[in-house]
Amino acid sequence: MPRCLFGTPRTRRFIPWASIAIPGLGWLLFGLYPSLATIVYSFTQYSGLPGTPLNFCGLCNYTNAFTALSSEVWSAIRVSIIYVVGVTIFQNAIGIGLALLLNRRGRSYAVYRALIFMPQIFSVAVVGAIFSLIFDPFTGPLDKLLHGAFGVTSTFLGSNQLALPLVMLVNVWMFSGYSMLIYIAGLRNIPSEVYEAASLDGAGRFRLFRNMTFPLLAPAFTVNMFLTVVGSLGEYALILVLSGGQHGTQTLGIYMFASAFNSGSAELGYGSMLAMLQFFLTLIVGGGVLWTLRRREVAL
Amino acid sequence: MDTSTSAPPPRRRRNAVRSVTAIAIAGACLATGLTACSSDGSGSGSKVTLTIGEWTNPGAIQFTEKLNAAFEKAHPGVTVKLQQAPTANNAWQQLTSTMLQSKTVDVLAQFAPTQQGFAPSYTSLQPGGIAALIAANKVVDLKDQPFMKNYDTTAQQAAIGYNGGIYGVMAAEYVSSGAIWYKKDLLAKYNLQVPSTFQEFLNDCATLKSKGITPIFAAGKDGFQGGIWQGIMNQTLMADHPAADSVKVSTDRATAFWQKTQSWNDPVYKTISQEYQQAAKYLEQGAAGVAQATAPGVWASQADNYPFLLDGSWDSATIQQANPKLNLGFFQMPGTNNASDNRMVVKPDLSWVVPTTSAHQDLAMQWLAFFSQPDNYKQWLQATGSVSTQPALTSTGLSWMDWLNTHSKDAFEQLTAPWVPAGASTDAGGPDLYKMTPMGKDSIDTVLKRSADAYQKAVK
């Protein structure tokens, strides 16, 4: 029987099946099973510790969320929406700006692009630790700078007014490079003839951007908007490291984490119910954004 | 010749040999792995591995490693493995869950649940964390173990007791509410004494401020200003009660809150909040943004300012590491103007438990007995700065613990908070000091009313 790199023809027949089965098994174990378990746990008062009873309570968690604890839930949803809107707008605006600025040939531009993308590869813990030190009102450089330049001081992440914008700022700083790369890919797909024709017609830079570049970036814009909305809705690690969810930074993700894990009275059952709410919120907001932007693409 | 039935062709034979060899190797690996895991010591010449799980606290970990080495020496054939993770960002809870799930831990450190962890059935609140494990009979009752005689039964019962059993050894307790580290030399420089009443404390702060010194340093970003409020509250509510009554006072208060005969709007909490404000105005500028990760080190390095640090008594190692030359002292902030009511408030902390899934329960008991020996326990106290939970051991000999050693006799267990369901807001658990002046902008009345409303709504 002839042999080749991947065994005999008989064994090769199984390669496609194995290629599907192995990741499929991984998805079943690490994707589907935890998701189904979360649905089940959301109907319990389960502590989350192995060996303890599930304590099925029907819809008790859902009922609590919209009666006794409704103010906490709605407050978390409100903060989540503010966070998503702020991060999405600024991250994409900065991403487009950087893409327009750095979409050039040359080694130095490659270095700039790499530098701007770099925060994306740092772990959230590292970024959180760096910015916690920068924002420390006692030892951090930012307070000294502010005090030296304007004679004012701030508690930064300890301020009820500033904590949320600052966490959003760090999020934008961390992920703008990623948005920039997608926009650069989009820009490179726009034929240069389009710009040449428009220039011959006398279009200035702003009109070129408004009437040519931005509409033709629609696919990249859709992808970026969707990824930013879904990513920032699910963000909790960065907020946890920076502010611990204090000072008005308790998003639904942080509230879920705190309810499920973060104290002696934490309850995975209630946390799982919040995870379900988060899922539906992502579905509605993310789905809505995708649907709207797809329609816009078609209209263009 | 029909080779298919008499003998396989060379290639197939080679494949068959390879398969058998692979299976044999895999089997050998599995057997080795299982032998390594197996631990009852019944196998011929097999080693026993006792696994200890403990969260990362430099002093405690250092001591445990030393103790484990001594235990291994005293028990030939036994290897003690230490598993650790920091408490930050849920890492310790993840490790705990993994070790329990895989049934690989024999002695596990847990925060004492106290009686707050076991709310009465009429509340419909289910226990969480270690309390859930105890209620589900997943932890061994240590009440009748000989080494438990070294410890104060009442304190152990309060910390980790349930239905008459004692499900762990509460090995450490710390002053947490109103705990104040101080710089002895700085107080001496301004002719100040350790205060014994709340007014004396305020007078000390006022004197220091008049000399250009900022009296109190605290990691407000992580809520350490709450130590002032909690300290005053504990001593106020426990005034005129014997120390042994603390569990009863806690339970009565929790019951009254649940039944809505008491609330955060009661006058006593207004008085406590007013006193909190009087002390909190002496905090460092920008306290709300200072993180606990840096606070002890920053405070220790500033020898000529900030005489007082609001921080738990567990942080001695961190402070001394940051400035070994610092002449360090510690006292409980006096919360009332009656010196005899200003007793030490201790909070149960690290407790060793033995899961019922442990494969080496006898060995685990031997390890706990070894840990509980007075000589070893004294070293534990010196390493961790814990207040002794063994009545026979009253002094650790550490210079910064002089105040603690002389006041530990009257100490009472920190009052626990009223029961609230999982997911309840911060406001329901007590006044949000970030929102109350001087850190926030809201008045005492506004903050207390918000807390009272949030609690009423949460337990509806």
Automatic annotation (TrEMBL), chain B:
The keyword Magnesium does not apply. It holds the Pfam family SBP_bac_1. Keywords: Transport. The keyword Cytoplasm does not apply. Belongs to the bacterial solute-binding protein 1 family. This is Extracellular solute-binding protein.
